[in-house]
Amino acid sequence: MLKSLGVRGFKSLADVGPIELAPLTVVFGPNTAGKSNLIDALQVLSRLATANTVAEALGPPVRGLPLESFTFPQGGLPALLARTADDPPTFRLRADLRDEEGILGYEVEIGIAPQSGALSVRDERLSQKGRSGTLVRDPDISLDPSSRMVVVRRKRKSRESWWEEEAGQNHTQLSNRRYSGNEYPALSRARALLSSMRAYYLDPRVAMRAARAPQEVDDIGPLGEDLAPFLYRLKAENPKVFASVKRSLCTVIPSVDDLSVDLDPRRGVLDVEIKQNGTAYSSRVISEGTLRVLALACVATNPWTGSVVAFEEPENGVHPRRVELIAQLLGSLALGSKERRQVIVTTHSPLFCAAALRIAWQRPRDVRLIQVTRDEGRSRFEPFNPLGPLFQDPEIRDALTAKDEDVWIEGLLVRGLFDG
């Protein structure tokens, strides 16, 4: 579980946190507030634990060029490019991770040389902590400021030893598979926790409709691009879980009668079909809202991976009458099942927030609502007390009822002018 997250210098997250996270965390606010950048930060943090290079960790599906991952100073991009090697742009991610063995604190600072675009790890730390947050032993990864060497602690039965690596490399020490196994238990734990995080920016317009061949995948992919091969493998290897996906889809969208995925022997690609009101539709023509719900059902029942899942605005394209069911589905994923997963959701929907608030009233210790606002180009994250009425706070009311285009479209959906 991700216990807390702090971000400094990443996109609009100039100085955020640490944000305390719960099994179900709902981050709400209007568009452009910086909610999506939080998802990107989670994605980068996860990928830095396994990626071969920092450039790979900052690549797609993380949005924007690597240079655009750094907070722009006053003066924008030209001012950022004017920074020198002695004062390069940097961003820092800091997380407390919790598993059955305790708490791990991981912190990493990434820098870029604006003139060349070279990315490097300027600082990296991994520590084991007690419940109070204090260190219980020497750090497992640390930076020696005098020598500018990164020190990795090695644990043996009889004694401890250390490896030293030069700072400024193009990959994290945590991603170095040489530091695995019984001699590096803390690194193995942190790597497993971070690599199991999944962030989703579902794209039902293109990625989820593209023709795909069978492939051994354990997830639908950040954009939902692996939806078809995921369902095909699930149907073959875990038919009971496939049936659970179908039940979840039918529960949220009662007009759905059936779900199937089959291999077209002539083209060698997979066909996902959804039967709705007696008529079968392929994934090429089914509504965006239905595809989103199907993707959420897959993530919720995934038997292979994803201890922490983050969703960007799962309500998009979904009929308002189904938004509460979506919230309940994600709530049950975080709070209801035996193998619970931590769920982090961003939203600008008042309907989703209201549904999340009802869950929070029942499980106040397990649900956290966080409001995002933007002040002079910088994102601010403030905890919101779920025990009070949602719309009695003018600031919250304004944040959730901003008259932007998406809320206008949501109003049309309520009046039945679109089908989602």
Summed up:
The chain has eleven helices and 17 strands. The protein has 420 residues and is of the alpha+beta class. It folds into two domains: 2-202 and 314-415, Rossmann fold; 204-305, no CATH class.
Give a written overview of the molecule:
The chain is α+β, with helices and mostly antiparallel strands and 420 residues long. The chain folds into 2 domains: 2-202 and 314-415, Rossmann fold (3-Layer(aba) Sandwich); 204-305, no CATH class. The chain is built from 11 helices and 17 strands. A 6-stranded mixed sheet has the order 10-14-15-3-16-17, sandwiched between helices. Strands 2-1-4-5-6 form a 5-stranded antiparallel sheet. Strands 7-8-9 form a 3-stranded antiparallel sheet, with no helix packed on it. A hairpin with a 4-residue loop joins strand 8 (149-155) and strand 9 (160-166). The longest helix is centred in the last third of the chain and has 16 residues, at 320-335. Residues 402-420 have low confidence and may be disordered.
Helical percentage: 25-40%
At CATH level 2, the architecture of the largest domain is 3-Layer(aba) Sandwich
CATH topology of the largest domain: Rossmann fold
Radius of gyration: 22 Å
Total beta strands: 17
**What's the number of domains?**
2
Number of helices: 11
**Which CATH top level class of the largest domain fits?**
Alpha Beta
Biggest sheet strand order reads: 10-14-15-3-16-17
The coarse silhouette is globular
* Sheet/helix structural class: alpha+beta
Distance between the termini: 33 Å
Q: From N to C, what is the helix and strand string? A: EEEHHHEEEEEEHEHHEEEHEHEHEEHH
